[in-house]
Amino acid sequence: MNNRVVITGLGVVSPNGINVADFTHAIKNGISGIRHDQQLKDLNFSCQIVGEPQIPEGYLLNYFSALELRNLKSSGIEYGVIAGLDAWKDAGLEIPTDEPDFDSGTIFGTGTSGVDKFRIGIDIIDNGQVRKLGSGTVVQTMASGVSAFLGGKLGLGNMVTTNSSACSTGTEAVILAYERIKNGQAKRMLAGSTSDKGPYIWGGFDAMRVCTYKHNEEPEKGSRPMSESASGFVPSVGAGALVLESLDSALNRGAKIYAEILGGNINSGGQRGLGSMTAPNPVAVQRCITEAMKSAGVKPEEIDVINGHLTATSKDSLEIENWAKALNRYGNDFPYINTVKSMIGHSLSGTGSIECVASVLQIDQDFIFPNINCEDLHPEIDELIDKSRIPTTLINKKISILAKANFGFGDVNACIIFKKYNNG
Amino acid sequence: MDNDQIINDLKEIITPYTDHKEALETLTENTDLLIDLKINSANLVDIILDIEEKFGIEIDNDSMTKMINVKETIAVIKEKLAANAG
């Protein structure tokens, strides 16, 4: 079995737009979703700016019943369910009422689930009142809570699971879902990822001093991938979701096709060589990109655009070097490269899927969104590739092939290749 | 507190947990929480917590297992109220 796999639905909950239309507008126009966070200031965080989706009062009632919302304290589940249901609706898929849809499943990743619910539960348990926890604690704090909620709401009868691989979670989910459809094990998969928000999530990174503390008074300038003045990432949160479908299934029901997935690769540097728990092994990163191209049947010179990981730490130069070496393309010959992290920060386990949505939107709507905050390009990057390859204003241009990668703690990598679908 | 009063309070407590509003409207002592009101069994513990709060009582595990229909639920509530009063 070797099915072609296409994308027929998109959903996103991002700090700069909580639906696909608003998000598209924001990334085209370089609109930042980074804001000052008084709570982090009060808690003595070094980094007091974050990217957090602005969910209006009452909005969750469109996605959850009043009963579900009663004791819901799991922001990752909230974002994931909004993005997932929006993607399903966007794909024009029915929700079965009586029988499960055994041809449809979900792989929806997260780093943790329900930390705020956990926090409440810890106080209750420590006070000897475990019986007062109620029924919601397990489903909100189990890692697979988000896929379980989505599976129930959509009546999914195929695989319903949650993957977790740090910052590569979202892209990994899309690749795993792609493989499942390609191999004929499912016709449709909802692929995506989400993350919890708040000080208990971001605190660990703040303690590692990997978040910027230099832009607390100018939040929108804080996330500076590829810039010389980059001083760490800006923590953020959100979710992205993509409906993947066999080409046959999509054509049969006349669905809109956003893009095709040609292939991908997932690997690890084994925390050997230059790799460690927190640093990527360049050999593995380059291999991941090369193997992804091989699996897609794509040559390096065919890649028009790269959607990078590019968190705004000292590792950005190394990432550019890895791409350049893997593709053997330098200077003017290097593909265009961009990242939404300049606008929304680093949404951790949510980031890969949000960026996959951004990648697919560029292919579907023929544009390359601008990078913001890199007017002072890092000299190490300037040496490797031409400035013109890092757009700082919107470019309207047809893209045929886009490579997208994320790299995560644990020395894990994921790279996926998207292509414009041209009715054949 | 008489049965009608307790039933009225129970209706209010149960409302968010059931989609079967008709069965809730016509709730009697013989109504079964799981069969007639189709309440998710996992939510029974939440209903018990709501009852405890409403009536200012504490319901032990043995009593809780009896509370599958309205009649038994009322009996347990009355018993615990009486214990409180005593």
Molecular structure report:
In chain A, the strands form 3 sheets. Chain A has a 10-stranded mixed sheet, sandwiched between helices. In chain A, helix 4 runs parallel beside helix 7, helix 8 packs across helix 14 and helix 11 crosses helix 12. By secondary structure, chain A is α/β, with parallel strands linked by helices. In chain A, strand 13 and strand 14 form a beta hairpin. With 86 residues, chain B is an all-alpha fold. Chain B has 5 helices and no strands. The radius of gyration of chain B is 12 Å and the shape is globular. The mean pLDDT of chain B is 92. The chains are: A alpha/beta (424), B mainly alpha (86). Chains A and B meet through helix 3 of A and helix 3 of B.
Highlighted features:
heterodimer, A: 424 residues, alpha/beta, Peroxisomal Thiolase, Chain A, domain 1, 2 domains, 10-stranded mixed β-sheet, 15 helices, B: 86 residues, mainly alpha, Non-ribosomal Peptide Synthetase Peptidyl Carrier Protein, Chain A
Let me know the average pLDDT of chain A: 97
- Based on CA atoms alone, the radius of gyration of chain B comes out at 12 Å
The CATH homologous superfamily of chain B is termed ACP-like
- Major sheet of chain B: none
CATH topology of chain B: Non-ribosomal Peptide Synthetase Peptidyl Carrier Protein, Chain A
Annotated CATH architecture of chain B: Orthogonal Bundle
Order of helices and strands of chain B: HHHHH
Distance from N terminus to C terminus of chain A (CA atoms, Å) equals 19 Å
